[in-house]
Every structure is written in structure tokens, then in C-alpha cells.
Design a protein that fits this description.
The protein is built from eight helices and six strands, in the order αββββαααββαααα. 47% of the residues lie in helices and 14% in strands. It starts with a helix and ends with a helix. The chain has a four-stranded antiparallel β-sheet. It is of the alpha+beta class. The chain folds into two domains: 87 residues, Integrase, DNA-binding domain (Double Stranded RNA Binding Domain, 2-Layer Sandwich), CATH 3.30.160; 110 residues, Orthogonal Bundle (DNA polymerase, domain 1).
Amino acid sequence: MALTDKEIQALKPKDKKYKVTDADGLYLLVHPKGWKYWYMKYHIGGRPQEVSFGSYPELSLKGARDRREEARQQLAKGLNPRILKKNVREARSVLFGGIADEWITMMSTPAESNGEAGVTRAVLDPATVKKHRWIVDNYLNPALGKRPIAQISAEHFLPLLKAIEVQGKSETAHRVRALASRIFCYAHATGRAPQGDVTTSLRDALAPPVVVHHATITDPEKVGELLLAIDS
């Protein structure tokens, strides 16, 4: 019997994982911690296989059914939905946008500190992650996100930085270059950017940002106001 949103929302976690079926191979796997994931079970050559679609409620019931119908059409053409999904994921992992996402996720995920078991730290704090995400989404991905990172050269990257400079955002151009440098270094270290960090040669291709100096505060009351502003 087909599921309804009301039934899904009412599902409660149990001591062990359990499945709730919809139709045509689609089912929801409920974890002991309350997580809910969509899967589709199917057969190829008489052998059972399955493909994951995503989590609920991020992927709605209607969305999961749409994915199921897409998978059924792939099967009708003799294609394996699980293999197709794997190929798409691997193809994305070599695009600049995919590697940028991978780097941000890695740098914001808790990791063991100094090899001490049980001692973890986040490499980047949430505020820094948010800034990096903003630069990637607003500058890097629109220009380079869908390009294979191994094919990106300094000549591809320079027009982006110059376009930012033309807008009078010299400091932003330097920040974009610096973040891209870290992403390229990561891609090179993981074997996906054999050309290395293409932004290195662009350091002197940008005008230096204008530094504005402010007078020193000597009034004790003004110093107090500054400290309060910093604290808030």
C-alpha cells in the first residue's frame, strides 16, 4: 500500500533499522536515531540491487517517486540506476565546483587533533565556512564551477579576477584568488589538478588593495566604546 506524508511523519525510530515500503521497489529506511532515507530495490539479471535517492524530508515523497520513475525508465533502457548515479558522482568530483564543495566539507568536519583519540576539532569555524561558501557560490562557481579542474589554467582564471577589480572590489579579488589557491592545492594533492595551483602566477597580476589608516584612539571613553563594539 502506498505511503502518505502523514504516515511518514508519524514513523518513530526503533531499536533497529526498519523499512517501510511504498510501491514499485521504493522504500523508506528508518534509523534508530530517527534519520529516514529513500531507497529503491530492483533486479538485474535476477540479482537484487538497490539505489539510494536521499533523505526525508529533504527529498519529499513526491520527489522520491519521481526519482523512482526516472530509475524505472533507465532500467527499461537496460541501464543500471546505481551505476549511473556513481558515474555522475565521480564526474562531478573532478569539476571545480565539486572539488570546492568537497574541500569546504572536509575543512569544516571535526577531525582528530594531534592524533589524540577522542580529541576533535573543526578545522574551520562556522563563520569562516560561511564566508568561503559565499565566495564559492557568488564568484568561483558561476565562472568555473562546471569546468573540469584539470583543464583550468591561469588564462581562464584571470578574467574572473579582473572583472571583480573593475567593480572596484580589489580586496575581494585577492580573497577570491586566495581561496581558489587553497582549492587548487587540495585538488593537486589528491591527483585531480596535475597543473598545480594556477593562481600562483596571478598574485602580481592584481592591483594591491588600498589600505586606509585610521587615527589612534586616545580618549578613554572612546576606547571603551570600541571595546564594547568589538565584544558585540
